[in-house]
Specification:
mainly alpha, Serine Threonine Protein Phosphatase 5, Tetratricopeptide repeat, 45 helices, extended
Amino acid sequence: MGQLNEILERYKNQQDALKIKANLQLRLQKPEAAAQTYEEYVSAYPDEPEVKYVLAQLYSDLGQPNKAEVIVDDLLATYPKQPILLQIKSTALMQDKNYKEALDYAERSLAINPEDSSTRLVAGVSSYMTQDFEKSESHLTLVASLLKADHPALRMLADAQIRLGRSLDANETVKMFDNISEDDAGLLAGLGQALLRDGEINKAKDVLNKQPDELESAAARAGVATLKLSLNDVSGIVDLEQALAEMGQDSATETPVNKEQLEVTLVQAYISTSQYDKALEIAKKWKESQESEVKGWMLEAKINAIQGDFDRARSALESGLKVEPENSIIKFQLIELSPLKTDLQKQNMLAELDKLLVTSPTFLPAITKHYLLSRVLKQPQTMTAHLEKLIENNPNNSIFHVTLGRLQVAEQDFSGSVKAFENAKRLNNKPAPYWELLANSYIKTANFDKTKALYQEWYQAQPNDPKAIIGMIKLYDGSGEFKKAIELAQSYENQIGGNNLEIRGLHAYLLARTGQFKLAKAKVDKLPEQVKSLPLLKTTIGILQLAENDLGNAVLNLTDAYKANPSSMNANWMINAIARYQGVDAALSATKTHIEKFPKDELNTLRYAQLQTSRNENEAIEHYKKVIALNDLNFVAHNNLAYLYSEAKNYSQALKHAEKAKEMKPNDGRVLDTLGTIELKLGNAEAALKHLTAAIADKNTHNTDSVFVNYVEALYANKEFKLAERKISQYTFKSDKTSTQLEQIKAKYL
């Protein structure tokens, strides 16, 4: 180094000496000195891009991107696609907080060298700072595993994922944090709320448990308190009260919008816990502020109405209306406070609603109230036409379509409701509560494939949404996939941590229906008493009572369930109970009454025909025909009808229906037995033996005495006497009558 300095003293800016000196300084790990030497070189020899490039990199490594940027700008004019130059430029721009251009240069560099993690990080941070969260998540996800656990970019990634609705991804990112600090409290509170919106209750609880025990910031504690309240932890009320009190004292932390939102949350908590005096204190505070005065009067009215003090509620609303005379919400709430005991009072309310709809024709609560009141007064309703007019002028307003669909459901115009809800879905395909009404409308119009597709789409988009889960459970139940239905209910309760009472009730019902009575009873016992009075639980309890042979109470509960919801399955359970408790005649009567009211009920029409098969053959035949008219693919109806026609010696019809049943169930022993006995009666011994040999091998019928008797007769008819005798000697009779029948067959053929 000394010799080099001597040379440079004698020959200032000697080219080779400067290069050697800079390289030696780098080897001696003196990058600042090397940068100074390269500066001298570039100053003396400005036309050497290779040295400029090295100096730019060195500035960048030393954390001096602004110095590097001057050189890079010069080099980029000649080398516009050099990725390192683009990367250095992007870093300099990011340091200057010029995030938009930083992102542009970073992405130009990545287009050439996509594996550069440093540039990827610049792109991720810059896009986050420009609020392009989709790009930020895309870039930062690729480098997250390379970052230190305390790197700010990990926090940016988690926040971007929350904003994009990817709460599960954000939850995984947060797991990469090495230590949760107070600075992370707000992020975690937001993550907890996002997980709750996605139905991930247990994961939201885990996030709450990760929060630091001691938080200095009132805003951070307010976020945690809000998450607690969302998880039904009432200790959040006290925490939120304290946080809001501190936020009020410290003007430095005052955030009016956030504070107002927090106060709304606190009010909701007060109302849900009946702390009305505290809610009124907030109303009083709001009234003292010009910006929130009307909101204060409306809150005071709401609290008074809840407590039954309608005069004070009305007075508060009138005070609010003086401040905002055209406020449609206040006008509507005043109308709702009017008495409704007499028809005249109802007529007066309807007239007031008409006036409101003149000035506020799109105010949906008034439209809905007007419709309901018209129905109560048994007057022609005009609101569906009103909504159709609104839609004509605003065809892209999805809420108008949804409201129209709801009214059409109430009118039992299910074709209309399907059209309205499908229009709303076309405008906004995001799952929403009205999807349940659309599914029900599909069912009412026999669009079962669309029902299935809708619930599958809903469940795929929101796998933790209780309504979507309920829909899928019912689909599985309807298709006989009970195991899948039970697993879905178990997953919701155990893994997600959900507490939806309808899902819990469905779970108990499915356990009872599949014979898991002990588990079902345990589920029922844990449900609130008011839930046990619901039709679904009445059915479940009735099934359990059937299993316990408590037939009288089973009939009572299953009849109550049927009256509340006369579904095909509820009718089936009720008739089962009646048959066991009161006998077949009573069951027949109940079944006939039901199918006369619901002539399209295939299940119970078939049941009625089966009950009549051994009692009234003509009645049975008539109802089997009705089943086939409803569903030509019902093999049981075809098979049983074939049997009855055979007994009536109408062999052409018998053979027709037996062969139809065989087309659907070619290996079913019951079908093969029917077809075989018809062939026997027709004298087709060989064909009969073929069918009955297959029937006796089928697991459903191989131990059935009547099928065995028919099989033996087919053997005798085909002169297979020794084989018949051997089969008889190997068979264990279930009934004493069987041996008598066999003796009669022997006498016929021997």
